Amino acid sequence: MSTRALFREDAYLTRCDATVTAIDEQGIHLDRTVFYPLGGGQAGDAGTLTLADGTVVAIADTRKAKFEGATPDDAVHVPAPGQEDALARMKAGDAVKAEIDWSRRHRHMRLHTASHLICAVLPYPVDGCSITSDYARLDLATVEPIERETVEAKLNALIGGAHDVHTEWITDDEMAARPELVRTMSVKPPMGLGRVRLLRIENVDLQPCGGTHVRNTGEIGTLRIAKLEKKSARTRRLVLELV
């Protein structure tokens, strides 16, 4: 039931042709997909799977598949409630057209890229994060005070600087030899496939990440810090929203 994760090759792909490999209690498995599964703090994609006869199955979420030998790329598409009739028409071997909710995904991409910029503005370890279509939340391990206006200004300056964003690959062994690249305390680098994807924001940031991102920081748009609070004695929580 191995899945080819097309979103890792091109985050701007919105649809693809695929074949159903299995349907089980987890959801629908495909041989290839443009749907990003929940992971690394980023929410899973929603969208539709359309059969050759026009039957549409609404997908409410995408998760990492759980089975013996599963890799980080193996995804399962979770149908929305009330899809029983449509699901009854679907079986393993069927050809489908998979299409994501692009508006939702693009917001994920913009906010996820912005969270990397925060790592450059505030160089503290990240002790938890959540990327949704409404906000990006980062918990930073620091006791230092954070000035909202200063951070907001620096963040939007990096966005306005129109820095190119692209991915690079290193081997698992190379990743193990460069622990300084890891900024997150709660999320491990996406290892296990023999190589690790790095996200580089030119002249700004470099760190391992398996999520989806925009091609240039200028695409993010204006952001504001919606919330800045003391989560614990050693952690500060910051919530970003698109303006």
Key traits:
single chain; 243 residues; alpha+beta; Elongation Factor Tu (Ef-tu), domain 3; Threonyl-tRNA Synthetase, Chain A, domain 2; 2 domains; 4-stranded antiparallel β-sheet; Ala-tRNA-synth_IIc_N; aminoacyl-tRNA deacylase activity; metal-binding; metal ion binding
Folded structure, characterized:
A hairpin with a 4-residue loop joins strand 5 (47-51) and strand 6. The model has no long low-confidence stretch (mean pLDDT 93). The chain has a six-stranded antiparallel beta sheet with strand order 3-2-8-5-6-7. The protein has a four-stranded antiparallel beta sheet with strand order 9-10-15-14, covered by helices on one side. Helix 3 (102-121) packs across helix 4 (148-160). 19% of the residues lie in helices and 37% in strands. It has two domains: 4-100, Elongation Factor Tu (Ef-tu), domain 3 (Beta Barrel), CATH 2.40.30.130; 104-242, Threonyl-trna Synthetase, Chain A, domain 2 (Threonyl-tRNA Synthetase, Chain A, domain 2), CATH 3.30.980. It is globular. It has helices spanning 6-9, 84-88, 102-121, 148-160, 172-176, and strands at 4-5, 15-23, 28-30, 32-33, 47-51, 56-64, 75-79, 95-100, 126-131, 136-141, 165-171, 195-201, 205-208, 223-232, 235-242. It is built from five helices and 15 strands. It is an alpha+beta fold. Residues 1-238 form the Alanyl-transfer RNA synthetases family profile domain. This is Alanine--tRNA ligase. Keywords: Aminoacyl-tRNA synthetase, Ligase, Metal-binding, Zinc. InterPro entries: Ala-tRNA-synth_IIc_core, Ala-tRNA-synth_IIc_N, Alanyl-tRNA_Editing_Enzymes, Thr/Ala-tRNA-synth_IIc_edit, Transl_B-barrel_sf, tRNA_SAD. It is found in: Cytoplasm.
